[in-house]
Automatic annotation (TrEMBL):
Belongs to the NhaD Na(+)/H(+) (TC 2.A.62) antiporter family. One of its GO terms (biological process) is sodium ion transport. The keyword GTP-binding does not apply. It comes from endosymbiont of Escarpia spicata. Keywords: Antiport, Ion transport, Membrane, Sodium, Sodium transport, Transmembrane, Transmembrane helix, Transport. The chain crosses the membrane at residues 44-63, 75-91, 111-128, 140-162, 168-184, 189-210, 238-257, 278-296, 302-318, 364-384, 404-428, 440-460, 480-498. It is found in: Membrane. It is a multi-pass membrane protein. One of its GO terms (cellular component) is membrane. This is Sodium:proton antiporter. Residues 60-448 form the Citrate transporter-like domain. The lineage of its organism: Bacteria, Pseudomonadati, Pseudomonadota, Gammaproteobacteria, sulfur-oxidizing symbionts. Coiled coil: none annotated.
Length: 503
């Protein structure tokens, strides 16, 4: 089955509810303090309470998307506008006309950088999909006739190593297509393989800035600690913890995979003209983005947009070399027929069609999340959450200063499984607690892999519940949650152990 939508909606489960986070925030309302004469304290004011209520209602609507079929971007975009409108109106009543405007512009700049970065990545993925790159890999795996246990490990390994480049959602959809093609009516294999794919894809995406939105957010934030800047190559310190996160549950689950062989083979699929060159251009685009950021200190999005030009010029080349012959029918009508010079050759290529296929609901949902969380931060709630999580918890537990942020960062992963890693990670970045490089990487790891504990905790899990409907389910995944949680805990201890010099 072809993968037509690689960046799909996270559906009803992008976020479940924000109450766990609010429970951390609300008890500390009385601790609010001023942050300058141009910043009003609204955490214990009706404006703050109204903003929280709007935010919660919006997220409840997102949660109910599966039942209402209301796209998740709509309620959060509306909530973002209402929250900032109320805040801006109140500030204007107190003579601070431009304070809210300046804060919104700052949030918009952060969103624009991330949105354009993701748009380029989505465009390349869509281009590779249209050229049958992913279908070719799927058909090859199906045709090989591997056993269920072999396929369990092959799809897991591929999910882990493809997701750092193609992102965890795209990778999960591709591997799930393989599993469904060979699994047939063996629901037990499909369930276990899908769980393995979700865990592997999320783990693989955690050690690469390109593998997950949360790692991309941390990388683009250009965080500086006492040990230095958390740059592109620093994320690879999470490789071993990510491997542990996936291997621990995979090794345990493999004993439950049926030791059988699937029946039938797969249909051979050929890639279209230019497919391999588009893969090379995508790698060149990644190199350009990293080089722009590391060597000439430009935002990575500038490098990504430069790489989009590579694809645009190559698309122009494909059009110019698109051979057709004109056949005249009845002397007055003409029809264009494709000249089949070789398998899959040549099909007109339009880069803007690939841009149009980007999942705009996801991109606009991201806008709503950034501005909603930014609004709550401007009101003062994130400062309170930061004080509770990153200061009080560590002191209460008697931890050393270097490890005081550990409980909060571990909680980030748990909240990511319940709420969603995007608003949780953006909240942490807005709080900007004073942490070491090791702690920032721990927060990144936790947010990236924590969502694997529930099927609704990550985009990969949500997408697979739709793709393997009835075979990969919430409760089927939940049965293995203790094993996945064991991998989560093991990855945290591994990170603290092997990267102790970063704390």
């Amino acid at each position: 089955m072809p993968i037509k939508t690689l960046i799909t909606s996270k559906g009803a489960s992008t976020v479940r509810f924000l109450l766990p986070l609010l429970l951390l925030i609300l008890p500390g309302i009385g601790l609010a303090s001023g942050r300058g004469e141009n910043h009003l304290i609204l955490t214990d004011h009706w404006v703050g309470f109204t903003a929280i209520a709007i935010f919660v209602v919006a997220y409840l609507l997102v949660m109910a998307e599966e039942f209402t079929h209301l796209r998740k971007s709509k309620p959060v975009i509306l909530a973002a506008g209402l929250i900032w409108a109320i805040v801006a109106w109140y500030y204007q009543q107190h003579g601070l006309t431009h304070a809210a405007e300046a804060a919104v512009r700052h949030n918009l700049l952060e969103y624009a950088e991330l949105m354009l970065f993701l748009l380029v990545a989505m465009t390349y993925i869509n281009a590779m999909d249209e050229r049958n790159v992913f279908e070719k890999l799927r058909s090859w795996l199906v045709a090989k006739g591997f056993g269920f246990r072999q396929l369990f490990w092959i799809t897991g390994v591929l999910a882990f190593f493809i997701s750092p480049i193609a992102d965890n959602l795209t990778t999960a959809l591709l591997m799930c297509a393989v599993v469904l093609a060979v699994g047939g009516s063996n629901n037990k294999f499909v369930l276990l393989a899908c769980i393995n794919i979700v865990v592997a894809a999320n783990a693989g995406g955690a050690f690469s800035p390109f593998g997950d939105i949360t790692t991309l957010m941390v990388w683009q934030k250009n965080i500086t600690t006492a040990q230095g800047t958390v740059d592109f190559f620093e994320f690879f310190n999470l490789f071993v913890p990510s491997v542990v996160n996936w291997l621990v549950p995979a090794v345990i689950m493999t004993f439950a995979v049926p030791n059988e062989k699937p029946e039938g083979g797969g249909e051979n699929v050929e890639m279209k003209r230019g497919a391999k060159r588009i893969i090379v251009l995508f790698l060149a685009t990644i190199i350009t983005a990293v080089s722009f950021h590391n060597f000439i200190h430009l935002p990575p999005v500038v490098g990504m947009l430069t790489g989009l030009a590579y694809l645009q010029f190559f698309g122009f080349y494909l059009k110019k070399t698109y051979h057709k012959e004109l056949i005249t029918t009845n002397g007055d009508a003409s029809t264009e027929l494709e000249h089949d010079g070789q398998m899959g050759d040549p099909i007109a290529f339009d880069v803007f069609n690939k841009i149009a296929r980007a999942e705009w609901d996801t991109l606009l949902f991201f806008y709503g999340v950034v501005l909603c969380v930014g609004g709550l931060g401007f009101i003062g709630y994130l400062a309170l959450a930061s004080d509770v999580m990153y200061t009080q918890w560590g002191v209460t537990m008697g931890l050393s200063p270097a490890m005081s942020a550990t409980p909060a960062n571990v909680a980030v992963g748990v909240l990511s499984a319940i709420v969603d890693n995007i608003p949780v990670m953006f909240a942490v970045l807005t709080m900007m607690p004073d942490m070491s490089e090791g702690q920032w990487l721990l927060a990144t790891l936790a947010a990236g892999v924590g969502g694997s504990m529930l099927s609704i905790g990550s985009a990969a899990g949500v997408a697979l519940m739709g793709q393997a409907r009835g075979k990969y389910t919430f409760f089927g995944h939940m049965k293995w949650m203790p094993v996945i949680a064991l991998g989560y805990v093991a990855s945290i201890f591994t990170h603290i152990w092997i990267n102790s010099h970063l704390f």
